[in-house]
Structures are given as structure tokens and as C-alpha cells.
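Support reply, case 0932

Customer input (verbatim):
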Amino acid sequence: MPTYQSVVPNDKWPARYTFSPATRVENLVFLSGTTGTDDDGNIVGPGDIVAQTRRIFEKFALILQSVGGNLSNIVETTDYVLSLDEYKKTATLRRELFKGPPWPAATGVVVAGLIREGALIEIKGIAAL
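Our regenerated output:
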């Protein structure tokens, strides 16, 4: 059975959480569902899905950097959004950040709500180092 380790890129991760920002298993990094929040847990870009998406990927970049990777290591994302119309606005940002092709595999899911109040999108991902 492979061993895994929690990936916590800095000391700002609240001890009260019962999950890790990411988990590494051999060369795979599983990025937890993440919303566009600042270090104090406040939503960035209220009402702006692109700003929130950018912040999510900034957080992913920090996590991946802490294990020797970067955004180009992301091989799959799952995006949970409140609105398909809003979700379409994130495509240009994905092109900017991933510089593909090749692009990561991706799934988009429209949901009735997200746990983080004010969040318009939550993204989880898998990276291969």
C-alpha cells in the first residue's frame, strides 16, 4: 500500500480543519476542493468568478511549488459552479494559466450551492510530478 503525506505549503492552514490542502501519494498530488479566499478565509473578488478562479489557482500554485511542481503539473480539474453563464467566463483564464494544449482533463458541475458563502466556484485537482 502506498504511503501518503499531507501537503501544507505554509503555516496559515487552520489546525481546526479535518482535511489537508493537498495529499501526495508517490508522484500524484490530490488538491482539495478550494475556493477563492484570502489567508483569513475571506472571499476575494465578491461576485467575480474570474477573480475567484485566479485566486484558487494561485493557491494551487503555492501547494505545488512546495513539492517541486507548478500549474503545468495539473492533469485534471473538477470545477463546481453555481451558474453555467458565469462558468464560461473562466475559459480565458484557464488558457492563460495552462498555456495548452495539452490541457488538463476537466469536469464542470453546476451545483445548487457551495459551503463557502460568497463562493461562485470551487475547484479540486490532480497533479502529476
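We compared this against your earlier run and they match. Two observations from our side: The first helix runs from residue 49 to 66. The helical segments are 49-66, 84-87, 91-98. Please reopen the case if you see a mismatch on your end.
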